[in-house]
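Retry 2 of 3 after timeout on previous attempt. Resubmitting structure tokens to design endpoint.
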């Protein structure tokens, strides 16, 4: 047995035992790990140990969580998030060159694209699925396609798919790729890897590259259902990391943030103090890991990682329950199980509510019209319903169809307009008795002097005064009639559109016909008012 620490041990079956908890020591298939001893007594002990420590990540958690994860992944493929239904998601964020790709490679046991600039230019949804088949099954899903990929060709396949989605060059896109890895020994996890945060655009990138990346990250980490896996380099001050600042904007208490500290071997001196001080408020804690170097196999990398945290005088002080990729895998599986268990009832309720709303909308849709007779029947039914609604609003004063929309309470609004017209008529300038009191009358009388009866107003003087007053206010009744018909036009159109809500193809033509009809009636009404005003003038002067 390889000895890491009193609380940490690794068995020959590739299982790491942390404080009596068995977790996977390596994402490679268990059968590929070499035995550590040949002694028959030790071999017997190994067999007993293998029976005792069936890895809980694979055996205990995965068979329980896998159906739930599959359900969540199917919902994700159905784009339910576009309907406002949030799904529990582990979102991987970090500054550029923080070591995100190395962490994901260690968890999945595969190689991902590497470059000097931005490695991840689109959201990469990684679905890790443990299965017993010794041959890995890997495929990419994007743009409605499902493309099988050989394990050795994963970086090339991802780069080609990224170029197709985001274009050639260094630009980014918010259209995700999905990488499905079915492989023995990997933890059952679904994670979203987002572009690394960079402030300085390189050749071929837009000037607002930082803003684009920030918007993508904030979109994924803002929902309360998201778990933020914040990847930090041990070589930097955590408080200066842009990824920390972003996660604190949406998770001030840190209750849904887990920090992974990479490159522990490069800056071991102050790492113990950093993770224990927790100056940046990481609620779910830290896990310190060592990046795989050069051509190391994943098995070798895990052995070197365990040796580093066991033997390094600075790193050995760190609690063994927060070091190593196997511990990280266990934490992520446990956190994922908790968040799914917490969110699933809410997701089911939201889907049921959304389904009920959509079914209700569907039921409002009109039945299929298969003949001219059916169309005429439906049209006459709409006209009849519209006429009844207008009778309620404009004649009977019944507002049950529009209880809260006072603009549709026709009888009340018509009375208001009539009262306003009366007030306006009495308060107009021509009706003001204090303005030029008797001046005009005196002037008219002066012009009408002649032989006549005393104390009698000459007829021509009376007619001149009356004609002038009537002429000054003759437009007011006409304007009032136009105002009333404008209101009726709006009311008729609004009610008609409401009854035509499910017959979209009829809306435009029927609205136009209704408007033309109202305009015709308006013209007739206004002409009638003009005739009445003219009759008053003629009657007064006869």
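Retry 2 succeeded. Sequence:
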């Amino acid at each position: 047995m390889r000895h890491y620490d009193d609380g940490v041990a690794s068995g020959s079956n590739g299982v790491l035992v942390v404080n009596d908890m068995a977790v996977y020591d390596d994402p490679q298939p268990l059968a590929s790990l070499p035995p550590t001893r040949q002694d028959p007594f030790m071999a017997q002990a190994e067999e007993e140990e293998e029976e005792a420590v069936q890895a809980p990540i694979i055996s205990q958690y995965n068979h329980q969580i896998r159906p739930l994860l599959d359900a969540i992944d199917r919902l994700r493929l159905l784009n339910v998030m576009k309907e406002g239904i949030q799904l529990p998601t582990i979102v991987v964020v970090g500054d550029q060159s923080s070591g995100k790709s190395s962490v994901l490679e260690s968890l999945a046991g595969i190689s991902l694209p590497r470059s000097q600039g931005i490695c991840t230019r689109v959201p990469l949804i990684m679905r890790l699925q443990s299965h017993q088949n010794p041959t890995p099954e890997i495929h990419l899903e994007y743009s409605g396609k499902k493309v099988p990929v050989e394990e050795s060709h994963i970086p090339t396949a991802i780069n080609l798919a990224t170029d197709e989605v985001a274009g050639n060059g260094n630009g980014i896109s918010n259209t995700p790729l999905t990488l499905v890895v079915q492989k023995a020994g990997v933890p059952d996890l679904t994670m979203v890897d987002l572009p690394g945060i960079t402030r300085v655009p390189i050749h071929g990138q837009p000037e607002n590259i930082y803003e684009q990346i920030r918007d993508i990250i904030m979109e994924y980490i803002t929902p309360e259902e998201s778990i933020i896996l914040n990847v930090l380099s041990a070589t930097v001050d955590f408080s200066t990391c842009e990824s920390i600042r972003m996660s604190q904007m949406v998770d001030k208490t840190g209750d849904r943030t887990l920090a992974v500290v990479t490159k522990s071997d490069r800056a071991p001196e102050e790492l113990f103090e950093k993770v224990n001080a927790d100056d940046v408020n990481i609620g779910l804690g830290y896990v310190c890991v060592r990046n795989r170097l050069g051509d190391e196999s994943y098995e070798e990398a895990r052995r070197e990682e365990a040796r580093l945290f066991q033997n390094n005088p600075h790193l050995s002080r760190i609690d063994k329950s927060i070091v190593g990729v196997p511990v990280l895998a266990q934490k992520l599986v446990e956190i994922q199980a908790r968040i799914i268990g917490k969110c699933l009832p809410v997701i089911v309720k939201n889907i049921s509510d959304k389904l009920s709303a959509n079914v209700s909308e569907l039921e409002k849709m009109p039945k299929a019209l298969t003949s001219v007779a059916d169309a005429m029947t439906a049209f006459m039914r709409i006209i009849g319903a519209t006429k009844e609604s207008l009778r309620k609003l404009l004649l009977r004063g019944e507002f049950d169809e529009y209880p809260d929309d006072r603009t549709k309470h026709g009888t009340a609004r018509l009375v208001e307009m009539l009262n306003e017209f009366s007030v306006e008529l009495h308060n107009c300038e021509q009706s003001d008795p204090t303005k030029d009191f008797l001046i005009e009358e005196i002037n008219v009388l002066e012009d009408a002097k002649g032989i006549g009866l005393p104390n009698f107003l000459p007829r021509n003087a009376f007619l001149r005064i009356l004609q002038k007053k009537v002429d000054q206010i003759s437009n007011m009744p006409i304007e009032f009639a136009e105002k009333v018909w404008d209101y009726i036009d709006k009311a008729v159109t609004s009610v008609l559109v409401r009854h035509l809500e499910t017959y979209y193809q009829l809306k435009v033509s029927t609205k136009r016909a209704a408007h033309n009809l109202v305009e015709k009636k308006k013209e007739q009404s206004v002409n009638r008012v003009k005739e009445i005003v003219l009759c008053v003038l003629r009657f007064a002067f006869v």
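Attempt log closed. The mean pLDDT is 79.
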